[in-house]
């Protein structure tokens, strides 16, 4: 992988975010009626990169890709599941967290991307609980340290065995001179509501907290001796299953493998294409509208299953974004394009709106929400090119609203016969896809004049030409054919010449106006601090704590406070 | 200054945060009835450090220390002032922002501290407007670039001359590969509510925006040709003065110079002492209670003026914290101690509560709020040592609540005859001193069980012994004499051995539970990203943009996106 100092294991050419339970090396997924069990049993020799072993149920990105896949499949493939147990197959250890040798040898970019993806996975667990009624209980049978405890923190409830040894810990600061980077600090105070001085103590001791204090300080929900823990857990499973709102009638939808074709400078899916102009450092992601008419009704939608365009397109787009993030670090800009019949996209949206109470439709909407959130926190300049023949309609219009800028061409392009670009809104633009800070993209856009939001809502379903879209504030610039090439090209060139770091910081700040949530705090406050610390010699220098860990030598620190 | 690569100008031994209008080199403060005018006229040769000139009204920390002083004096010394004009004495330039040569040659720690202080100054301007009815209008007569525009953003209103040249700009990203570091990004979207795509455009062009677009995009409130600008400004002054809630009867309170004595390892004020144990990297800040009885009534309070203990102690504590931040970068831990009669502190609090509507009392409360906020964002481990003879009462108890931990000794110390430590609450702990994210420290503390807040409130005025304080959740650990020395000493030693960077990140995350505000977003999201960028070679490396600026050579960037 470009920019990576390390080789992927087994001669892999890229990090692949697609997997399936039959291929898991690190997790076991068992489903029994309303209860699923996700058992972590990391294959020491199954690391994504060469050069380290995944001891003590420690993990790398590859382990987390499987977890994310399992959480996703539980939502789509197992409509009957209401409770998920997270547990460890090991004795005396739940999970030792992110693998330290992996971190010590990883590029800065990989560390940051690794934390981002693992954060998204944990947010996904909470999203399942909040929006799909699949509740998680984490059973900690030994040491849950660092990322191990952070994984537990994503669950609704944590039960810890009380055997005088099992403990929860966030030992990153004392051991490694980095932060718990997967939401731990935020979840400890904001979700578990641990008092900050207790949290300070907890996060600065290596050995963690166990027994009664773990409950008193709210770090776990319950402790139980080994002999009684299964009974305690069973009672919690029963209670959560009772409380679950999940009503998943019928069969699940199998998330069949995506057909993809990777070429040197492109990736081809059915509805999504990625083309990379390496010299310009631009990746163009084109999403195509459905070619066939959408199913006539809910039954037809269910029958299509994973082939239903919104689901298929979401999966492909998600994979494409993840691929670009991890495997194409030199990409400066992602240009979103769309092509096809906007009416077909709106027809799919209409189905998704009419049947929003159905579990599968809900899952598809929630999934689009998550894909779009993933785009929001992608550290590339995002731009929408809204040109003749495009279909930025409804759900696909969110790509334009997620973009840092949207350029829209006025009228036809000379010498072409494609219809002028039109942008169209659907009800889904007004609530289905909140960003991580809780506002929709249009709400964020119209902070200054909420009346503008109503004005936009009044135009739902209309094919808005460039000048109307600009007047409504839906696009940044409407340009005619003559100005387009010049302005758009100059923008891309200039943008590509700026410092990528400065752009990452700029975009991370401008994309999120207004409120913050636990999730956005994790991506903003916590992640930014961690990124800083991941650059500092005290952590990653030759004598820093990450490098020195396990060598028996103490790290050497620059003791100046910044 | 330790840790600084540069020498302070004129052989100064330290950065001094005390000044007064007669000594200003960069600002002029004129007061005329309800209107004050702050005119920026930076002395090119008045830089705080050697090695750069402050051309084009660019600024360094020294310039901002004068601005902070002026804003502070306006509140205390000029009760009649309702509107403050911010303007430039230069033709065709308002302010070129932070001086780039200063930044390029500054240590990372100085850059971070510089941004922190300038942020506090701008927050202070907004605090004046919100809580003292002193409203700011910024008149931009030329280029307001970078920090120059960020200063304008702190004002309530911005008026820009419309002469085809005057412009507002945030050119940091394209010119310098860093972020606008003084709240600009946050204020553009969250305060001015500029649409994010407009903000993206605005922040990526060097030349900025002028004329009608500046108004349309909400970057300024009004434009006017040079011939009419004074009339426009006068109308705004009149309207804001009318709307102001400021009712400052009587004379102002002169903020007389603080008597300080700097020794090698200590600083001595009247009510505050700083002692530095260099080997242990610990600074002990001791605040003493008033020795005399407080004034009997409001008239007595007014007569004392700057000598009134709460005001004097706040000024001293503020100066001590700023001194530690900038001049003692190797300090790892600040231990807060208090000594004296807690009842005297509570008596002052009672005055401050009884007369809260009086403008001077309001100013004193607001100032304590700001000092405590300054402590909250100070990147040192903060710990309160609550021992016999101490007076963590009311306002001073906030030091314990601001601390990362508070240790309280149970009973007397053997061989001493000082009374056992008691902690006492006053009404001021329940609303007078919100943190930057809007919650009081006790609200933050009791997020898990708001009923605990009520339980604490029910004990206002009581002298709470260590066990009671611990039971109420007001301190972290209550320890007896035997455990104290061991536990407290081990804590200090351990803490001092951790990576300062990791601690900075840890504390910045744990101190702020729950909501975020524009102010806390500036300190968290924006500052953390800027800190990261300030470490990256693209900005600060030998071929980075900050170093190359003005050399005619283009910066060289690592084009990997992180």
Task: Spell out the key features of this protein.
homodimer, 562 residues, alpha/beta, 2-enoyl-CoA Hydratase, Chain A, domain 1, 22 helices, 16% strand, globular
What does this structure look like?
The structure is a homodimer of 562-residue chains. Chain A has 562 residues and is of the alpha/beta class. In chain A, 42% of the residues lie in helices and 16% in strands. Chain A folds into two domains: 5-243, 2-enoyl-CoA Hydratase, Chain A, domain 1; 261-511, 2-enoyl-CoA Hydratase, Chain A, domain 1 (Alpha-Beta Complex), CATH 3.90.226.10. In chain A, the strands form five sheets. In chain A, strands 12-13-14-15-16-17-19-21 form an eight-stranded mixed β-sheet, sandwiched between helices. Chain A has a six-stranded mixed β-sheet with strand order 1-2-4-7-9-11, with helices on both faces. In chain A, helix 3 (108-132) packs antiparallel against helix 20 (518-535). The longest helix of chain A has 25 residues, at 108-132. Chain A starts with 26 loop residues before the first strand and ends in a 14-residue tail after the last helix. The mean pLDDT of chain A is 96. The interface between A and B is large, with 89 and 90 residues.
Q: Concise description?
A:
With 562 residues, the first copy, chain A, is of the alpha/beta class. Chain A is 42% helix and 16% strand.
